[in-house]
Structures are given as C-alpha cells and as structure tokens.
Design goal:
heterodimer, A: 250 residues, alpha/beta, four-stranded antiparallel β-sheet, B: 236 residues, mainly alpha, 0% strand
C-alpha cells in the first residue's frame, strides 16, 4: 500500500502541491489526470523523491518517510521501493537494452551477473524486444525505448511503478504498442500510478482515477464514475475539453 | 640559404633520444591536469560553496596568464617555499634536490587542469539531467550514478576537446627548456649549436612533433569510435 499524507511542494513562491493526500491499495492501477501545471507530474516525482517535497509523509509498503527530516540514506531506501518510467524514456544512452535492464539488478540489488542477465532477457521478451537485446537506445524507436524503460522498471520488482506520461513523447502510431505492454503488466496485479492524457486507456485499465488541478486533488473515484458522472464542475470542464463531444449528423 | 638534407636526418636521429622526455612531461601534465580539471568541474557544476569560487578563480587566473609565466612563477617560488617548510619542521630535504623536470610537471599540470576543467565541464553539461534521474530511479546513489552513468557519457562527449588539450600540452612542453629541461625542441637547438644549421634541426623537430600529433589524432579517432559506438543510431 502507498500512502501520501499532506504532501506539499513549492518551487520558489509557486506552490505546486497543496497538502495532497492519496492512498493507493496494493495491486491498484491509479491514473492521475489533470491539465498541465496541475502538479500531477510533480506529485509522481515526489513519490520517487526525484522532487523533494517540502512537507508531508510518504509511505510505501512497510517503509515510511517524513519529508522534513529525510536523510540521504532514507531517501535511498524509499527510492528502492518504487521505479519510474519517464516521459523521455531516459534510457542509459551508453548501454544496450539488455544492459539498461541489468544495471539496477547488478549494481543496486547485487544480483550475480548470470541471474540478472536471465531475468533481464525474460523481461525484454515480455515487452516484445527479444530481438533487440544488444541494441543501443539510439538504434531503437521511441516505442521500443519506452518498452525497455518499462522492462527496466519491472526488473527491480518495486512495490509500485510510476509512469510519467509514458506515451506523450511518442509518434501516434507507436502509442498502441506501449499501452499494450502497460495493459499486460497491469493485469498481473502490479501496483501502478500513471500520469496520462490517454483517456481511453485510463478508462479501460485503471481501477482508480484521480483528477488534479491547481495543486490539489479535485476529485477521485472509480474511473467509470469520474468519467461519466463527475461530481465537480472543474472535472466536467476538463473532461469536456479533452474528449470530443459526440456529434452525429444522420 | 642552402639546406643540408643529410643534417636533417642526423638531427632527427639525435632527437629521437629525447622523445621520452617530451612524452613524459605531456603524460604527467595531462593525467594530473585531468584529475585537477575533473575536481574543479564537479565543484563548479554542483556549486559547492567556497570550493566552487576557488575553482572559478583558479580557472580564470590560469587561463588568463601564459603557460610560460606559470612555469617561471613555480620555478622561482616553489624552492623558497619548500626550503622554508622543511626548515620549519626540521626535515633534511633541500629544494635543490628537486629535478628540473619536476617544476615542469607541477606547473604544466596546473596549466592543463584549468583548461581541461572547462572541457570536462562542457562534457558533464552535455549529459541530460534525465540520465542521473534514471540512475536514481533504479536505486543508485549519487556517486554510483555519476560513475556509472554520467561520467562515461561525459567522457565520450568531451573526447575531441580532450585530444585538443593533449596536443596543446605536447607542444607546450617545449617551454620546459626555460628551466633547462632538454626536450625535443631544446635538443634541436643543442644539436645545431655546433654547426649553426638551426633550420635543419628545427625541421627535424617539427617532423617529430607532427608525427607524435598524428599518433595522438589516430589514437583519439580509435577511442572515439569505440566509446561512441552507442551514438551511431539506426543500425540495428
């Protein structure tokens, strides 16, 4: 279980997160929606401590951290509980697909090389890249790179995988292959928090949807509820803008 | 002016003997300069208080003054300093036992460090912030992420400029003659002093320098090809 309590974050005078509370159950797939600047990416990055919250408490599994007094060692321990899939993939450019997935296993988890290799190969197979083990990121398409990124995150067997707009940098025709992989692993019961603009994906895959705006959670609930019967006016406006109105002329 | 081709060859053969001196000065100054430069670049990029200002001052002063001046400043100050310190602590060491080439090593390392710090800094800045974030996200510590992810990429990015620094130091090493270290250029002068055929001797020196530079260029190209394998793209 992941529990965020009173998470606040400011960049200078600009308060981006205003005392956010969010609970994610084990095995849940949570999508975070919201306009740009709403703080959804910052919130996600706070969970992985790539952004340092000014205040609040982050609990992942059995580990909990008070952000005000976080020492380096605590941050490191918290980071090991989660893994991030980045919008810009951020694969290690000087390492092959296989090495990218192996890196964390060998260096952080201290697995023997052979075991790490076997596990990484299996994961790359799972994301459909068995034939690209020795390819460098520069030799892969965006969709392929992002699938390596997902394999890299999966390899660490974290409590939760965080997806930061995983398809936003992709060509439209490559979005499908990445979403298909995310769908597949969602079915396996891996806890995920996904920041996305893919509404149909959010509707199909998520079992909890969160709408953020102006640094607060405006509304949350089951996706069917949130999409079809939003309680808040702000949510309604957002959904209306992002999903084109059905307009039939017969 | 009549050129004596046979003396070019004669000088050339004699100059070969001092190539190790030139290479030694270059290797030491570049290696030490790399370490100094790396440290200076890191404290500046991470904006470590005090150290960062010190590093900036070091870089601007050294780059703002000629290499020959550094050598002379070291040559005239270091012995006094060493003797004073040794006298203070009662050590038996005398500055006169420092070999002349030692002054060249120290001063040229300081020179190289300043120039190379800028080369390394540009290499580090060329690596996107996302690379270190990705390292964090797989659970690495900052030193692990820097060593395994950022530095190799920064090195690849700064390789062409680093080879420039190496060549610069190779040619700069000729200044060591000022403190009576006999390098290739100095040897040419000595060889010619007997028969005044300076042009021939320096021609031989030029040929050797060009040859060495050519080797460095080839070596860099080879290294670049190996290190930059990942940047080629579109092959798989």
């Amino acid at each position: 279980m992941i529990k965020l309590t009173n998470i606040s974050k400011s960049f200078g005078r600009n308060q981006v997160l205003k005392s956010i509370n969010l609970t994610v159950e084990k095995g849940q797939v949570v999508v975070i929606l919201g306009p740009s600047g709403s703080g959804k990416t910052t919130l996600l990055r706070c969970v992985n401590y790539l952004e340092k919250p000014n205040d609040g408490e982050i609990m992942i599994g059995d580990y909990s951290l008070k952000c005000k007094h976080a020492a380096k060692k605590d941050i490191h321990a918290l980071r090991e509980k989660s893994a991030m899939v980045f919008q810009q993939y951020n694969l290690f450019k000087h390492k092959t697909a296989l090495e990218n997935v192996m890196e964390g296993l060998v260096i952080v988890k201290k697995l023997p090389r052979e075991e790490a290799r076997a596990r990484s190969v299996a994961l790359l197979k799972k994301v459909g890249l068995a034939g690209k083990l020795d390819a460098y990121p520069s030799q892969l398409s965006g969709g392929q790179q992002q699938r390596v990124g997902i394999a890299r995150a999966l390899a660490l067997e974290p409590e939760v995988i965080l997806f930061d707009e995983p398809t936003s940098a992709l060509d439209p025709e490559l979005v499908g292959e990445v979403l298909a992989v995310i769908r597949k692993i969602a079915k396996e019961g891996i806890t995920m928090i996904v920041v996305t603009h893919e509404m149909s994906f959010a509707r199909d895959v998520a079992n909890h949807a969160v709408f953020m705006d102006g640094g607060i959670i405006v509304e949350e609930g089951p996706p069917a509820e949130l999409f079809n019967r939003p309680r808040e006016e702000r949510t309604r406006q957002f959904l209306k803008r992002i999903t084109p109105e059905l307009n039939y002329h017969i | 002016m009549k050129i004596d081709p046979s003396f070019i060859w004669l000088a050339f053969v004699q100059l070969l003997a001092v190539i190790p001196t030139t290479l030694m000065i270059t290797a030491v100054s570049v290696t030490a300069g790399f370490v100094i430069g790396l440290a200076a670049a890191i404290v500046r990029i991470y904006n470590i208080p005090l150290l960062s200002q010190l590093a900036s001052a070091y870089v601007t002063f050294i780059r703002g003054t000629p290499m020959l001046t550094h050598l002379l400043l070291i040559y005239f100050s270091l012995p006094v300093l060493v003797d004073a310190i040794c006298a203070q602590f009662g050590w038996g060491f005398k500055s006169s036992s420092i070999p002349m080439i030692g002054f060249a090593f120290i001063s040229f390392s300081i020179t190289a460090g300043a120039y190379m710090s800028e080369v390394i800094r540009s290499g580090l800045l060329a690596v996107s912030r996302g690379q270190l974030e990705a390292a964090y996200s797989v659970g690495m510590t900052t030193p692990q992420g820097l060593r395994r992810i950022v530095f190799p990429q920064a090195l690849a990015a700064s390789l062409p400029n680093l080879s420039n620094s190496v060549i610069g130091m190779l040619h700069g090493s000729t200044l060591a003659f000022t403190v009576s270290v006999v390098d290739i250029n100095a040897k040419a002068q000595i060889v010619a002093a007997t028969n005044w055929k300076f042009f021939e001797a320096y021609l031989a020196a030029a040929a050797i320098f060009w040859g060495l530079t050519f080797l460095i260029e080839k070596l860099t190209a080879l290294l670049e090809k190996r290190i930059n394998l990942y940047n080629r793209g579109g092959v798989a």
